[in-house]
Amino acid sequence: MSMGYILTLLTFYITTETLSLHNGLAEFSSSLHNWCLVHTSQLGSWSFFHQSLICAKKLEAPEKKLVFLKLGLIHITVISGAHLIFIHKFLILTLHKLKFKNHLILSLIGVYTLICDLSSPVLRAFIALCLKKVSKNHKFFIPLPIQILIVLLCCFILFPKLIHSKSLILSSLCTLVIHDDFFIAFNLHNKAFFKKYNSLCKASFIYLLSSPIIIQFHFLPSPLTILFQIILAPILFLIFIPVSFLTAIIPPLHGVTDQIYDFVFLVLEQVSSYSNISAYHYKLTTPALWSYLLFLLILTYCSNLLIKKHVSY
User: What is the pTM of this model?
Assistant: First the structure.
């Protein structure tokens, strides 16, 4: 798909907005989302959890949600970029022999984005994936901060109300900080400590830099959650996502799934007793949060330019 084709589609969208094209898309997405909720509602005692992991419904069980909050792992229950990356890699392995696999995979992930009710983290991740594919096909490099800004602009064009989404700000910030380019910009990637404790450094920076945004949700997990991110998050992700999707495909498995999740949650409940969350009621305005993100993006971009200029000399 050429860049010209994408720009044509974007122009067509903008000029036909008066025909409520995006409203129609939202209604279609809502119908797919409701279908997903109905299907997953019949998957045993952990149906609410499957709905969160598959359909992007907010986790509503207070006692379960509290455990994930205390562990700093609530993001595992929120479909975002990591989930789409997992699905993308699975589809590549499954469909690698097909001639038009790239277009098919993007189409399937696009449909899944609609099933997730076009939630802001999923929409952002899907647009980012499309942008990555376009830049790779046309062999041009886009700096990470510029990528994030382009993706955000596309989100705002599609759904202007996303300008008020704190989740979109948080997911964009995490995308920036988890990437190696962020640490290259500040010349941290060559430090011996960073090389030895890469995961610890990334988790610590995400915790520190995302705290002003997380506080807006009226809580802040303990710093101990940095270790939980490193140790537990990858394990839980590899358990929850495949198991829930497999259960949705083969519903009779829900009996086994219930037992697995009962055991896993029992372990998580015990571990969470060593951590806690602090209540916060300090509010920042949405423009202030966007300014904070923009500051980090500009700082990263400028630092990268200075490093490249220094290396060239």
Answer: 0.85
